[in-house]
Amino acid sequence: MLGRCLAVAAGLGVAGVIGAGVVGANIAVKAAARGRIHTVDSAPSAPVAIVLGARIDNGRPMPMLAGRLDTTAALIEAGKAQTVLVSGDGNGTSGDEIAAMTQYLIERGVPRDRIVEDPYGVCTYDSIVRASEKFGIERALVVTQRFHLSRSLALCGAIGIDAAGVEAECDCRRITLAKNLAREWLLSEPKAILDLALRPRPAVG
After folding, report:
1. pLDDT value at position 115?
2. Of 65, 106, 114, 138, which has the highest C-beta tally within 10 A?
């Protein structure tokens, strides 16, 4: 009986430490993004808009990615950014995100010569680090959905990019948004803190 009680107590202690870590990471990430999330109309001007990749289907952006790209095209049209960095996985499990993103932006009226491609932005951390170290970006607008913006902006700040976030709409099912929000809170935001502390920089070639 005593052994069982000790095991339960130990388990609760570990759970408490993990829970505190998750909450702490979320507080830190949200604080880094406070006051830096905008709409297209309220966004400041910046030299470049970084649009973060997501899954595609049969070579076309799915609703989440389409929302990011529509918002990016609106920023270019409004003169809020001059160049777009499309950053995603050029060899993703759902296909070439970069080719799909570039084609979609061209169809939305963004000139091809204003689009820069990074096919090695395989995750948010890699996209942000490479934006700084490979492409020399110091100031930018970051375009993604609200649930993803806090982490993206926190990474930008830690890496040294002066960034403002622009919230993209998403014609997605509510269950999809709920799943992404839960994953962001429980896994992705704590992982961002660990990435910054422990993970080697991605290749920048």
Report:
1. 98
2. 65
Binned at pLDDT 50, 70 and 90, residue 193 comes out as low
Identity (one letter) of the amino acid at 152?
S
Burial of 81 (0-12, 13-18, 19+ CB in 10 A): buried
Sequence-ordered list of residues with C-beta below 8 angstroms from that of 204, at least 6 positions apart, any chain: 129, 130, 133, 134
The pTM of this model reads 0.78
List the one residue out of 156, 8, 147 whose CA is nearest residue 68.
147
CA–CA separation, 1 and 100 (whole Å) = 60
Q: In order of start, what are the domains of the chain with their CATH numbers?
A: 3-198 (3.40.50.620)
pLDDT above 60 for 18: no
Whole-number pLDDT of residue 139: 98
